[in-house]
Amino acid sequence: MKPLTLDKAMELYRIIGKHLPETDENDSGIDFIGKIVENARQSSTPQDYIDAIILLSGESLLSISKMSSDQRLEIFISGLVDNKILQLKAFCNTMGFNHG
Amino acid sequence: MHKSSSVVLGDKEYNADRAKLKRWLQLEGIREQIARAADREDGSGFVAQIYSYLSVALSVDDNFSQLPWFEVINAYITLIRLNSPKLDLPLLHATSEGERVPWEYEGRTWYAWAKIFSGAFGWSLEYIADLDIDDAIALLQEIKADEQTQREWEWLLTEISYDKHGKHKELPRPYWMRGVIIPDNTKPTKIKKSMLPVGNIVRWNETPDA
Fold it and tell me: Average pLDDT for residues A10-36, to the nearest whole number?
């Protein structure tokens, strides 16, 4: 999966910023992403999860809807890993972006 | 002090020199725009200004908009570090935000600095533009400190600087000239008289009688 450009990464943060858990220094990147997945699943706005997958994959809503839930989850997780989501959160926080 | 840094963006390596005064002021202006865009949560304005910072800092006109975000941000952070003042001057810790005057315009900061230096030292615009950042800020602080002491002297000579009891009212100093007040938390220690030394005591701050 191709890493996001800066404008797309900011868009990703706008969508999933509110689902990002507080970082715990004992957490590994995998733990952190696990918490995001859990938050997104339990969220009252599951559309954010779909929007993030569309952004990360570059696929259309129609293509995404034809995928199995496991395929969608895989795109979501690998997209967050490839796009260094911990680093993105730290950067946005440092710059004062509070959206989400 | 690092005078240059290299950053990799895409498949290209760029060497950036530490900015001189004029370009540094331009970069600081862009940083201000970046901070304002972040405050407004204006993602597209924020991104545009980050690209603008890279272009000015690297003196290139390349398109960075298709590069992975972390490459762009790592380059941005490297360039911010390269172009940060190294001297820890009180002037840089002033917290109050200057009021925007009606005659404000983009790039005015450079002319304001140029006016101060040309007025104080008679330097040309080219010479001022090429000043090292730390030299420029330290000199600006000296000029501002001189101006303040001059104002204090003039204030001392005016009638309004005294209250009706004839007590002198000090002219307030700007934030950066007030210094850091460290609270004295040390408790006085009592020493028995019998333990004190006898004879004449000469302290460091006193001149012994001839």
Answer: 80
